[in-house]
Amino acid sequence: MKINWGTGLVIGMALFMGFILFFVYRISTENSLNHDLVTEGYYQKEQELQDDIYAQQNTADMELQIKSFKNEMGYMLQFPEGYESNKIKGVVYLYRPSNKLLDFDLPIEKLTDSKVLIPDHRLLDGRWNITIDWEYEGKQYRFKKQIIY
After folding, report:
1. Beta-bridge partner residues of 88
2. Shortest CA distance to 52 belongs to which of 113, 112, 133, 108?
3. 3-class state of residue 135 by DSSP
C-alpha cells in the first residue's frame, strides 16, 4: 500500500497527540513528579508578607533610625532616643548566608538602656544579615541590615 503525504500527515499528528496525552497522563498520576510552587498556608504567608511590609514602613517612618556599630566587645545595636527601653520587645535574628549552622537569634526583653550587644565571640568574620523584629507600644517594626564583620 502506498502512503501519500496527506495520510502521513494524519498519522504524524495522531502520534504527536498520543505522545502529548501520554505525557499529560504520566505527569498527573505520578507522585514523584508532583512539584507545587505554592505553600500549604498560601494566604497565611501572604498576610505575613503584608505585615512585614507594614513593619518595614513603620521603621522607615521613624524620625531617628536604629544605629549600629562595631566596638571592642562585639556589634552594638542602639535604639533611637525617645523610646522607653523597657517597653521595647522583640528578637534580633542573625543570618549567615555562607553557613546556616552559624545562624542565631537574641531576644530583646527588659532592656535597661536602649542598646543590644551582639557578643564578639558569636560573630565570625564575614557577611551577616541582621533583622530586628521589635514592638513598641503595640506597633510592629522591622529593621534589616547587611554587615561585613
Report:
1. 136
2. 133
3. strand
Q: What secondary structure letter does DSSP report for 43?
A: H
pLDDT, tens digit, 9 for 90 and up, residues 41-61: 777 777 788 888 999 999 999
Does a structural domain hold residue 44? no
> What pTM value is reported for the model?
0.65
21: its cell numbers: 496525552
Give the amino acid at 99: N
94 CB-near residues (< 8 Å, 6+ apart): 103, 104, 105, 106, 118, 122, 123, 128, 129, 130
Residues 80 and 128 in one domain: yes
At 136 the three-state DSSP class reads strand
Please report, in angstroms and rounded to a whole number, the separation of the first and last CA atoms in the chain: 80
Helices (H), 30-83: 42-60
**Owning domain of residue 14:** 1-31
**How many folded domains does the chain comprise?**
2
122 shares a domain with 76: yes
